[in-house]
Task: structure prediction
Amino acid sequence: DTGVSQDPRHKITKRGQNVTFRCDPISEHNRLYWYRQTLGQGPEFLTYFQNEAQLEKSRLLSDRFSAERPKGSFSTLEIQRTEQGDSAMYLCASSLGGTGGIRDRAFFGQGTRLTVV
Amino acid sequence: AQKVTQAQTEISVVEKEDVTLDCVYETRDTTYYLFWYKQPPSGELVFLIRRNSFDEQNEISGRYSWNFQKSTSSFNFTITASQVVDSAVYFCALRETSGSRLTFGEGTQLTVNP
Result:
């Protein structure tokens, strides 16, 4: 399977703990995105990378959240001092980048479901 | 700021009925892209269509069709002869050319009953 993969699929953590999620994009894709989806809502943009550069961050991304994409390949999203409000599905997506046809299409992973207890 | 509204939270139909999912958007950009994604219970968002704001032609793909009306800022999605496998949450999304993020609506849960 050469799609976007995310690990872990599920994570339960106690409030106050740190968690880290990993996303492996489609190998030739330059752009990588993180979204958060709470129950009954659409995905909300968190941040996006063009290769290894983090080019845009949402105001939703508080200082407890940090994302990296070393070497422009996989990405990690870390949440420090988790809160119950962080419970959500964290979705990763990747695209070739640029506009026009297939280049603009974002492919999504199956997400990491975080539950903070 | 951009916004996407899907007023229908849930729709339930019987197999073989036609169903239309509504999407209304707001943007200040003159050039933008509209998308529909399907999210089955497995959670992965599946791409269905991408439409450029310059192209107002309606599109048909098998049992799926899309009606883009710039005058009313709507991009509606119709499934003809629905099937149980169409049951999922469907999201409409907008991307402005000035940015890379997708702005999603809240989704419509479609249930097709046998």
Summary: The CA atoms of residues 20 and 39 of chain A lie 21 Å apart. Chain A has no helices and eleven strands.
